[in-house]
Amino acid sequence: EKGGYDHFMLKEIHEQPKAIIDTYRGRMLPDEGIIRMSGIDNHMNKFLNAERIIIVACGTSWHAGLVGEYLIEDKARIPVEVEYASEFRYRNPIITSKDVVIAISQSGETADTLAAIKLAKSKGAFVFGICNVVGSSIARETDAGAYTHAGPEIGVASTKAFTTQITVLTLIALKLASKKGEISKSELRTFLQKMQLIPKKVEDLLKIDEKVKEIAAVYKDAPNCLYLGRGFNFPVALEGALKLKEISYIHAEGYPAAEMKHGPIALIDENMPIFVIATNKGHYEKVVSNIQEIKSRAGKIIAIVTEGDTQVKDIADHVIEIPETEEALTPLLTTIPFQLLSYHIAVMLNKNVDQPRNLAKSVTVE
Ligand code: F6R
After folding, report:
1. What is the pLDDT of residues 159-176, one digit of tens each?
2. Is 304 in a helix, a strand, or coil?
3. To 10 degrees, what angle do helices 331-348 and 234-248 make?
4. pLDDT of residue 245
5. Does residue 61 have its Cβ closer than 6 Å to ligand 1?
């Protein structure tokens, strides 16, 4: 049942190339520059007339929502807000029929997300779901939606659900961008062609497992870790920290790299491992100066860089290389080493990887 892997989580990490293909298959035609998503096509006016899009979700799905915000605002130029479903539903939010709400949920059963959807519907908003589990409560409650065809996710720590949610959000952002004339047909074609190369790049990245294991062995006894990223990779930093907390029970925090100097920098000393996403686009020089600030305080730096990087390599204690791609697609790659790292640390610490303490796969109570 675990397909030869020791844990479901590792199996699911390795399923990501296929899961991403299954998610975009039939939806994008790269060479023609076409994206077909019936849930969007059938309600295009709702999206085009939306004054804003509100994304509601919890946990990892909320992190995917943040990537979605960056994608939809950057590509389609529609204002987006991302909210924890649990906050949204209880804070008397302003919602009108001009809002489109996108609810993201792997299980489709998360109580707070479901309640947020019901609230949004009662105020007249159009609600679109991004779910993995077919026929789930959230899939049924929403006005339209798109499934992430990730297949069953058994490990409590979400992995392939996250990357396939991002895949769907990327398609939505590009589809809206193209419909609004924010990107040309040829730009769309080029982007989709790069997207089609992602599964193979994820597959290549999964081969760095041994290197990640070595890094895991060095830092597995750290009591605290920081994860930093900027732009599209800020949510990946949050997600990296969540994965480590969940399965290894090591305290970790994700931050936008530039926020470090507003507080967390006080934590940095020679015992603090700091995982930094420093890919070559996305404010590279700014991240390099953040890394220098860490270095001058003796923090240990583990950096995710783009293949061929030299600048960060000179400063960091360890580097993990990811293949070159479009900046907006980098979260699909930078996430992978963090998933593997958490996995290996949890295994080395003898934790229950697939069923961490206190956590449930579907949170059906608020
Ligand atoms: C993290 C994790 C949780 C879920 C959250 C939302 O690994 O599994 O944070 O992401 O409970 O669950 P869904 O997506 O099913 O609504």
Report:
1. 999 999 999 999 999 999
2. strand
3. 20
4. 96
5. yes
First-residue to last-residue Cα distance in the chain? 31
**Count of Cβ atoms closer than 10 Å to residue 295 Cβ:** 16
- Cβ(153)–Cβ(12) under 8 Å? yes
Instruction: Tell which one of 239, 339, 359, 363 to mutate to probe ligand 1, the residue whose CB is within 8 A of the most ligand atoms.
Output: 363
| 211 CA from centroid of ligand 1 (Å) | 28
Q: Residue 6's pLDDT is what?
A: 93
Report the chain's mean pLDDT, rounded to a whole number: 95
pLDDT at 282 over 80: no
Residue whose CB lies within 8 A of the most ligand 1 atoms, among 7, 9, 56, 61, for a mutation test: 61
Distance CA 318, CA 211 (A): 10
Total Cβ atoms within 10 A of residue 19 = 24
∠ Cα 82 100 157 (to 5°): 40
Rounded Cα distance between 236 and 184, Å, is: 28
CB 178 less than 6 A from any atom of ligand 1:
no
Question: Which amino acid appears at position 190 of this protein?
Answer: T
What number does the ligand 1 atom closest to the CA of 159 have? 7
Supply the pLDDT for residue 350: 94
Residue 153 amino acid letter: E
Q: Which is the closest atom of ligand 1 to the Cα of 113?
A: 16
Q: Is 23 in the pocket of ligand 1 (CB under 6 A)?
A: no
For ligand 1, atom 9: residue with the closest CA:
59
Measure the CA–CA gap between 163 and 150, rounded to whole angstroms. 9
Distance (Å) of CA 209 to CA 83, 90, 119, 302, 339: 34, 43, 44, 15, 10
Contact 12 CB / ligand 1 (< 6 Å): no
Q: Which two tokens stand for residue 278?
A: 């420093």
Burial 53-84 (b: 16+ CB within 10 A, else e): bbbbbbbbbbbbbbbbbbbbebbbebebebbb
- Catalytic annotation, residues: 361
d(C-alpha 193, C-alpha 190), whole Å: 5
Task: Using the atom order of ligand 1, give the atom closest to the CA of residue 161.
Answer: 14
